[in-house]
Amino acid sequence: MSIQEEAGLILKLYELRREETMRAARDWYFREFNPQTIAEFKAAIYGEHSGHVRMVVTYWDMAAALVNRGAIGLELFTEANGEHIGVFAKIEPILGEIRAALAPQFAANLEKLIDATPDGRKRSAATREQMKAVRAQMAGRNAQAAQQTA
């Protein structure tokens, strides 16, 4: 596949991410979805945000499959995207439990892509810590704002 064709696929993936429902799902996934246990994951996957979880994870799993199968080169993909690392970072600690309880192949393409990415697991762990710090900072701001209005 030519670099122009790969670029076209990258742009198409970007266009799909901009769709209104996908945007809402991505927003929820990154702001609200922070499963620490399989029970929390199941609560999301069987709750009102089931579509959001499935939409975000399967989107990035599909995009990863394009890279894994050679439709888009790894280098171009990782230069143009980073969100997939954050998506994986949120589920990585409980991925084995998710697969055992729900679906043996859940996010398998995404995991394969992370493992093919230089320092992919390290980047995932660092992203997870960064998101944890942001959540703590936001919680502190919210607590401070609540004290000021009380």
Instruction: Choose one word for the global shape.
Output: globular
- Uncertain runs are none
Measured by DSSP, the beta-strand proportion falls in: under 5%
Largest sheet: none
Oligomer: single chain
Order of H and E elements = HHHHHHHHH
Average pLDDT reading: 95
How many individual helices?
9
Structural class: mainly alpha
Could you give the distance between the termini? 61 Å
Number of strands: 0
Question: What is the rounded Rg?
Answer: 17 Å
Roughly what percent helix?
over 70%
Helix and strand layout, with pairings?
Blueprint: H1 3-17, H2 20-31, H3 38-45, H4 50-68, H5 74-80, H6 83-91, H7 95-101, H8 108-116, H9 120-149
Could you walk me through the main structural features you see in this protein, from its secondary elements to its overall organization?
The longest helix is centred in the C-terminal third of the chain and has 30 residues, at 120-149. The protein is an all-alpha fold and 150 residues long. The model has no long low-confidence stretch (mean pLDDT 95). 77% of the residues lie in helices and 0% in strands. α4 (50-68) crosses α8 (108-116).
